[in-house]
Design a protein that fits this description.
There is one protein chain. A hairpin with a 4-residue loop joins strand 5 and strand 6. The chain is an alpha/beta fold and about 325 residues long. The strands form 3 sheets. Strands 3-2-1-4-8 form a 5-stranded mixed sheet. A 5-stranded mixed sheet has the order 11-10-9-12-13, with helices on both faces. Strands 5-6-7 form a 3-stranded antiparallel sheet. The protein contains 10 helices and 13 strands.
Length: about 325
């Protein structure tokens, strides 16, 4: 048997055929066209493109166990309803009812970050484990929580918004309206902002040479490159960043005590240069670190396929 996984994005809709073991065997991508289509029209595109992919692979609908969708925003998994999204035209949109107009294949829905975490625990960086917290360091900080192999959604479907946990009371203003949120310190966006501020304050820094004096050219890679070149300003930026990133991870460990903390997103591509000092900081500050086993801190491995695979594995 096979499954269909759909990763709904603001720009593209990625659809894949996945085995019961979590192996992605075929995928395609079509534009979302969120400004030109209504929410219902986007859902209709998803179901029609899924059925088309099934036929293209020489399969029949009864070869497909389920269709799972990972979407941004707040979902109602029990009823298959997308409650609300910020950048897509959905508000209490009944995905399941729309799908049922076209197919008898069972359809499941959950948040896209949750699906990515599930994908990683099925066949990615956390394969073989049942308890995991995954954080993704990008524009914001996304995340998903897996306990006993199941996504933690909360009673209202909105659990797992790890980026909006406050780590600095009264700190930087977040887009959510609160101050000091995790994503204002641990996201790639935050790292870029702190690096630009430091470069402006310290014109002698190697950071300014790397960006050729144009602060808009600074990326999340820039401070790591400058630190490797021996820049002390960059070294301080990275140290502060790792402490903030690590403090959030320590909170997740204290609450959930997962077997694995997965870190994904572009910043994670720094590899050991990020992970080694991060692990050192976390182990040094973890609760009862001398007496109980501690979570492994590992990189996510599935990249953009995590959401497709995780969505395909939804079954409730």
């Amino acid at each position: 048997m096979y499954r269909i996984g759909i990763d709904l994005g603001g720009t593209n809709i990625a659809i894949g055929i996945v085995t019961d073991e979590g192996k992605l065997v075929k995928k395609k991508s079509v534009p979302t066209l969120a400004k030109e289509r209504t929410g219902e029209e986007i859902v209709e595109v998803m179901v029609k493109e899924s059925l088309s992919l099934i036929k293209e692979e020489g399969l029949k609908e009864n070869d497909i166990r389920s269709i799972g969708i990972g979407s941004p925003g707040v979902t109602d998994p029990a009823n298959g309803v997308l409650v609300h999204t910020v950048n897509l035209p959905f508000l209490h949109t009944p995905f399941r009812k729309i799908f049922e107009k076209y197919t008898k294949i069972p359809m499941y829905l959950n948040n896209d970050a949750n699906c990515a975490a599930l994908g990683e625990i099925v066949s990615g960086g956390a394969a073989g484990y049942k308890n995991c917290v995954m954080i993704t360091l990008g524009t914001g900080v996304g995340g998903g929580i897996i306990v006993d192999g199941k996504i933690v959604t909360g009673f209202n479907g909105a659990a797992g918004e790890v980026g909006h946990m406050v780590i600095h009371a009264g700190g930087e203003l977040c887009n959510c309206g609160r101050r000091g949120c995790y994503e204002r310190y641990a996201s790639a966006t935050a790292l870029i902002q702190f690096t630009r501020a430091a470069a402006e304050k310290h014109p002698e820094s190697i950071i300014n040479k790397l960006c050729e004096g144009d602060l808009n050219k600074i990326s999340a890679k820039t401070p790591f490159e400058a630190k490797r070149a021996g820049d002390l300003v960059a070294a301080e930026i990275i140290e502060n960043y790792i402490h903030d990133l690590g403090d959030g991870i320590l909170n997740f460990m204290s609450i959930f005590q997962p077997e694995v903390i997965l870190v994904g997103g572009g910043v994670s591509y720094e590899g050991d240069y990020l992970f080694n000092p991060l692990r050192e900081y976390v182990i040094k500050n973890a609760f009862a670190t001398e007496y109980i086993p501690q979570a492994k801190i590992l990189p996510a491995t599935l990249g953009n396929d995590a959401g497709i695979i995780g969505a395909a594995m939804l079954d409730e």
